[in-house]
Structures are given as C-alpha cells and as structure tokens.
Amino acid sequence: MKETTKVKAAKKAASKETPQNRNGTETERFVLAEVDEPFPRPQAKSEAFRRHAIKRLLDLPPTDNTRSLIGHRFLCRGGGAILFSTTGSGKSVFALQLCVRLALGRDTFGLAQPDGEPLRVLYVQAENDEAELALVLRSMVTCDKLDEAAVATLEKNLMIVTEETLSGKPFIDAISKLIEKHRADLVVADPLLSFMGSDPTRNDDVTEFLRRQINPLLSQHDVGWMWIHHTPKPLNKTAKSVKEGGAKSAPSVYDVMGGAEIVNWARAVLFLEETTDASHDAKQPRAFELHVLKRGHCLGWGEARSKSLRHTSQSIQDNQTGQKVRMAFWEKA
Predict the structure, then answer these.
(1) What's the pLDDT band for 204 if we cut at 50, 70, 90?
(2) Residues 199 and 299 in one domain
(3) Contact 71, 226 (CB under 8 A)
(4) 3-class SS at 217?
(5) 123, 164: one domain
(6) Range in 155-164, 206-215, 320-329 with the lowest mean pLDDT
(7) Of 226, 235, 252, 316, which shows the fewest CB atoms inside 10 Å?
C-alpha cells in the first residue's frame, strides 16, 4: 500500500526520537498515524509506547532496588499503593507516622526505603484540622525521641498540606505543582474519596482518574503514590466485626470500598484490620492486624503477611492546662 505524506513524515520523526528517561535508559517512540486504508482504525489518545530492549531486561539484576521507595520493589517510583481501613481506626495517624519515618529514613513496622535513605514526602490530607496534625507530630517526637536535628530533617523532607475542595483534574493540576516544588519522591494522599471527584463504585470512573490522570502524573514526576482509603460500611449487623461474635473471614483486597479497578490499579495493598474483641476495656489500647494483601513477598517479612499493632496507651501533658491527652501513635502489640 502506498504511504501518504502524513505517514512518511510521522515515521521520519519517530526514527529520530530516542528520549532518555530519568534513569538514563533508552526508549523508542512509535507514532500511530492515520493510514490510507479502506476502513481506517480510530486514533489512539496516546501516541507513545515504551519499548523494553530484551538485552536490558535480561541484564537487570533480580535484586535491583534503584527505583524502590518501600521494600524490595513493594512500592517503586511510578507505582501506586493503597492503605485502607474502617472509619475511625486511626489510618490517618498511621499514614502520617509512616510519612515522618520515611522522611527520616526510618522503618515503620517493616515499611522502609530499602537502603535506609530519607525520602522527600508530600502528605496531602483533607480531613484533620491543625490541632489533630499537631497531636500526631507531638506524639511522634515524644515516642520516637526525635531531637532537634531530626525535626530539622523533617522540615526539609516532609511537606504537609491540607486541601478540602479540589478533586479530579483540578486536584491533579494543583498537586503537580506541589510535587515539583517539593521535589517529592513519594505522595501520600488521604483519603482517596476526597480527591477523586467521581463515583468509586464505577470502574470506568476509577480508570479515568487513576489510569488516565494519576498515572501520567507519576510518570511526569517519577514519584510513588499511596492512597489512604476506606472500607465500605457494613451491610448488616452480622457483617460488622468480630466484636459482635460473627465468624471471621480472611481479609481480601476486595474488602476495599469501590470497584475492583481500585485495587487492580494498585501495585501494593495494605489493610489495617481491627481485632479488638467484645470484652475490650475502653481504657486499654485497641488492637489491629496490619495485613499485606498484595506484594507481601517484597517486604522481607518471611512467610508472614501480617503484623500485630495497637494504639499506644501513653499520654502527654498539655503544658498550658496540665491536662493529660492520649497520644496519637501506633506501636507493636
């Protein structure tokens, strides 16, 4: 078939393009151009594909961690993860505690940068006021015994922002500027529902947001992303929890609120499950299991896929009022 002028021009341009990605690996561009066919196929929205050279793939060592942000490729640059739990479980406290420790190059219950390098972390949240954020940070400083040097490192490596109105494309545009300004390695966004701006139960809406809007953002800035998300509310009393005496079923990635595409998109999935029983004394800390439901083998936990955690029972004293306040902090059970 005779090539049109448009096709020749496109092929010529493609043959000259060999852009370099952030790691310096060569990619090739394949331009999808309209061809002179009796029934031309529809144009694709994206005109770029990345080709992976066979030799490069074979030369890449299995232990390569150059793009890892958490674990042995548990979460990498350009990838996404989800941490989900029930309302009121303390997942936002867990998220900020994780952000603080990653920014300091420290481990959080087996979640750590593999080489112990501090990460530049952007934490964007929509639910907690400044006093709640202050309590979590004060609890971290006290429980982890952070000195002035550590706090100075946090000032440099951790950016905490609140955004209560933006969602969808406006959110993407705004967060893109913050990622560039902070030169972030990792974004933790809390919660997904505040920023998605569409129906999480519709897989086409989820695909549009996560794959068509978030994924290009991750590629553009070469960052990792973690969503904090909810479980759906129980359908009936017998489904509520072990507290009511119901049979306990094994946790699943599909316990998350919304369509299956949410966890299909995520490379890694974490679930905080409350295990506090009916005889629990309200004065005692609540108990939880941290489950790794996707890519658990990448965290170096051996055969284990869960860890027992609890809310701390420690308190701090308000220097102005003298009142004692329970800290917002997670610890090993």
Answers:
(1) very high
(2) yes
(3) no
(4) helix
(5) yes
(6) 320-329
(7) 235
